[in-house]
Amino acid sequence: MPAPIRLRELIRTIRTARTQAEEREMIQKECAAIRSSFREEDNTYRCRNVAKLLYMHMLGYPAHFGQLECLKLIASQKFTDKRIGYLGAMLLLDERQDVHLLMTNCIKNDLNHSTQYVQGLALCTLGCMGSAEMCRDLAGEVEKLLKTSNSYLRKKAALCAVHVIRKVPELMEIEKNHGVLHTSVVLITEMCERSPDMLTHFRKLVPQLVRILKNLIMSGYSPEHDVSGISDPFLQVRILRLLRILGKGDDDSSEAMNDILAQVATNTETSKNVGNAILYETVLTIMDIKSESGLRVLAINILGRFLLNNDKNIRYVALTSLLKTVQTDHNAVQRHRSTIVDCLKDLDVSIKRRAMELSFALVNGNNIRGMMKELLYFLDSCDPEFKADCASGVFLAAEKFAPSKRWHIDTIMRVLTTAGSYVRDDCVPNLIQLITNSSEMHAYTVQRLYKALLDDISQQPLVQVSSWCMGEYGDLLLSGQCEEEEPIQVSEDEVLDVLEGVLISNLSSPVTRGYALTAIMKLSTRFSSVNRIKRVVSIYGSSIDVELQQRAVEYNALFKKYDHMRAALLERMPVMEKTAANGPTEIVQTNGEAEPSVLDVKHVPSAPQPSVQANDLLDLLSGNDMVPVIPTTVPTKPASAGGELLDLLGDLSLTGVPASAPVPVSISQPPFLLDGISSQPLFNDAAAGIPPMTAYNKNGLKIDFTFERSNSNPNVAVITIHASNSTEADMTDFVFQAAVPKTFQLQLLSPSSNVVPALNKGTITQVVKVLNPQKQQLRMRIKLTYNHRGSSVQDLAEVNNFPTQSWQ
Questions:
Q1: Are 273 and 240 in contact (CB under 8 A)?
Q2: What is the DSSP string of 170-218?
Q3: pLDDT score, position 654
Q4: DSSP helix/strand/coil, 795
Q5: Which stretches of the chain drop beneath a pLDDT of 70?
Q6: pTM of the entire structure?
Q7: Exposed/middle/buried for residue 207 (C-beta within 10 Å: 0-12, 13-18, 19+)
Q8: pLDDT at 683
């Protein structure tokens, strides 16, 4: 059989291929020849064939059939064969394949070989792909080589020991060559990350590490370790990383490394990427340990200089790091606000997104006007993928820091006109509430929204808010009493033309049409064109949209049967107070996916309702087998997106009834799931056997659940939440929210307070009632929101470990 071609000739031949198909044909032909050679047990050219096979593997072609040939080369006595064999093993084998265990004895023999280079090959292979079993069997040989006087072997043995520790952490038991130092630092780092005892043990090495790092930055030129004018940057980075681990949460260690970190930060050259890598690691170390305030400012200034770098990766790293530190060092980051805002214009989408997130984090009451101007300009020109997050951020910032109500309204309207299709569902009710509560701005707002509706009816949230305002304040639009800007002259027919245009537009969603129809109905008490309104309403009594048809039929009934009540029912909405604590008490059914989702806090009119809140569930439980007749009052909630436009004649909510509500109308409602159960004392002493549980324990906040069973209905579990705070500062504006799967029903009663006292000096309690008719295992997702030490905190948690007695 002729001698196979050499690797160099094969590479040259493959490179002459003009097409992928031609290259594939060459590879297949050569693979066939190699397979034939393997079958004939050709020991002469086995090494050459495996080398060619590895090259094909690097090109992406299958080479698994050469695995056993690699093992044969490893068993050979020739160094050239062993070198290719071990290289093939590292490339073609991994710990998931049992074949690799056949190498264990060969590696053990080679670790005790008389030639250091053969020992080095065995160490490299074990450190690259050794499994836990192999590492456990060969750990003794690696430990012996760690103590050898040969620095070449000690370096490789230390690297191998890192892999052994990662695979078998229980083998942890632990020199001035830079390579040995580097591998030793890596090994110590791995041990400290995995064992708290090792972390405590190695903290005594901080002075030695500081001394080594100082020698590195103060030493002169060393050609052996110099990289772009910096002495061994790889070792510097590794030492800084280890210092960060050792100094975290320890005052003495942090104090010992403050000076050297300042020297590294001020003496490292920033013109080359090598220096930037060291500075970045220095910044991370300063931010993680208990460093001095001046040192933290120095670290943030380094990140500020990174923002001016031409390298996109460095700018991205700087923005990400600043985003992590902005809560703790807000004022220092504020100094670089203009540079951060400039990054919004970057072409790179990753940098643009990080800059947007950091810009919103920097917004406060002092810079709200300037920052919003930049962010609104960004919203106008950014890609669609950014618009939703940007609009949401503008809403939150405006709500928190708005200098005036007019500015707040103008800002929200600007967002709706430029990115209305991307805003969250709750923006419509929130803006409606803001407008309702700004009584002095009603004429100005309705005029601005009317003009916006004339220009564009494609932005559905804008159309919904405009329709609502025109229905509420249409009389102000006609009066022309706007003081903030020049009033416009509008007739009743023009206003109705606009709203009818919304009703018939193909761009309008069913929800938007519901807003428009309700607005037209409300105008029947504000305009004199009642006959025209009656015609429009009657037309939609036969609409194919069931929601719209129902509204039109009920509005027609209002005209015909209850015309004497129409003025009272359609009067202007009262001022609405936003409930910051857990929202109103109401039964909420999750009717979406099977997975629970966190419930949004719904906004309802403020009214005296403590007794109603405490007894809603009891009211629903009372009654008999007949369909109940529930006295309902005129609803006072604004329409909201998502099909929740309120039926003016049939609101089922028992909460939020204003003190000055019109005469109630009794309406028969369909039976509720809980109807038909007699009213009895709510709690059952038999539930005392249900053990309490801890649902959440993080950052000093602890949430405990205790359980009781409803006496009237064993399917209702009554959960009492106890929130305590072990930190040294109060947690204010505390809000607890919960959601359950759609097979359950959930009711949240009002909490005892919204402040969780510090140092466990008191608790907040809140009652949650859960109806579980199918006796399924209880699952709950909770959302916690509160302010702590000047920062807003929000967290989600899954609670799946409820006691069996609580749901069976």
A1: no
A2: GG------HHHHHHHHHHHHHHHHH-HHHHHHHGGGHHHHHHHHHHHHH
A3: 32
A4: strand
A5: 1, 171-176, 220-222, 480-485, 487, 577-688
A6: 0.51
A7: exposed
A8: 47
